[in-house]
Specification:
The chain is of the alpha/beta class and 322 residues long. The chain has two domains: 133 residues, no CATH class; 172 residues, 3-Layer(aba) Sandwich (Glutaredoxin), CATH 3.40.30.10. Helix content is 52%, strand content 8%. Keywords: Membrane, Transmembrane, Transmembrane helix.
């Protein structure tokens, strides 16, 4: 597995700390409910003490979950997710109780140390777990000896090298069909296709769909182009593309472009299909060599395919139509 898909070392120690904290806090609440409530300036009546001991028991159980999750944070992400839910709901409950006069402001100290301080690291761990789930079963956990160029073929049964030996190929790595930017890219390719081919360059589409979807490509007049289905992202990895980070997939600029392309541009906003974390890119490939490539910095990047082809075909002596 790509090291970037594994839980960082700090996640283990953070979850061990969280587990130890919860066990100490919970045990203290069970054994010394009156003392804790008095320190928090909460009425320590008999009913309150019993209730506080029940809370302590739940907190200690959460602690056991964190200790289990510390062995592999990404595989045991449900335990962390449940813990985060509790840490989100706890402050909400406190604010409601405080605004109603049921709890004093001093109770906020336990909300700070037990809930708020853990939000950011838990969210980071869960994001890594989501990314890890998208890497499972893909090329990102395969040996580097994997050779998709020889094994993957187009919908017509031809290898990419066969096409590229005949003439340069613009290899367009798309995202999933539900992606707004994938649809936008298909429309851009359709509009620029005739000039790209007139420049002496073929076009090969690579997508992450498990099966080829001719209807999607027919919508943009691209159904006759050679297409490679690569659900395992093998060819993506071969050409140096990776899974996207949070900012690359969900950053503010991506959201803004998504609204513009989806609503204003009319491409719609679809549901994730296949590996929705895979980043796109374009490459000019000829005779076993990558002449140039463009790796998207964000999923929303919109390269001009014709300009890319013209800029890179001229230096290698391929006739370029003006």
């Amino acid at each position: 597995m790509n090291p970037s898909s594994q839980p960082p070392t700090w996640t283990k120690y953070l979850l061990l700390t969280a587990g130890a904290y919860n066990l100490v806090w919970g045990t203290s609440a069970i054994l010394f409910p009156a003392a804790m409530l008095a320190w928090l300036q909460v009425d320590a009546g008999s009913s309150a003490q019993v209730f506080w001991q029940c809370i302590g028991m739940l907190v200690a159980v959460y602690g056991c979950g964190y200790l289990i999750a510390s062995w592999d944070a990404y595989r045991h992400w449900p335990l962390i997710f449940v813990g985060l839910l509790g840490k989100l709901l706890g402050p909400i409950g406190y604010l409601i109780a405080y605004s109603g006069g049921s709890l004093p402001a001093t109770f906020g100290w336990t909300i700070l140390t037990s809930d708020l301080l853990w939000w950011a690291p838990f969210v980071v761990i869960l994001w890594g777990a989501v990314r890890y789930q998208h890497a499972i079963g893909s090329a990102y956990e395969m040996p580097e000896a994997d050779d998709p160029l020889r094994e993957l073929k187009t919908n017509a049964g031809r290898r990419l090298d066969e096409l590229a030996n005949q003439k340069p190929q613009l290899v367009v790595f798309l995202r999933h069909a539900g992606c707004t930017f994938c649809r936008e890219a298909a429309k851009d390719l359709s509009a620029q296709r005739s000039e790209i081919e007139a420049a002496g360059c073929g076009i090969v589409l690579v997508h992450v769909g498990k099966e080829d979807d001719p209807n999607f490509f027919a919508k943009y007049g691209l159904e006759d182009l050679p297409r490679i289905s690569d659900p395992g992202c093998r060819l993506y990895r071969q050409f140096g593309l990776d899974l996207g980070s949070f900012s690359q997939l969900f950053g503010a600029k991506v959201w803004l472009r998504g609204i513009m392309a989806g609503i204003v541009g009319g491409h719609g906003i679809g549901f994730p299909r296949a590996n929705s974390f895979q980043m796109p890119g374009i490459y000019l490939y000829h005779c076993g060599q990558i002449l140039d490539g463009y790796q998207h910095e964000r999923a929303s990047d919109r390269p001009v395919y014709l300009d890319f082809v013209r800029r890179n075909l001229a230096p290698v002596g391929v006739a370029v139509a003006k």
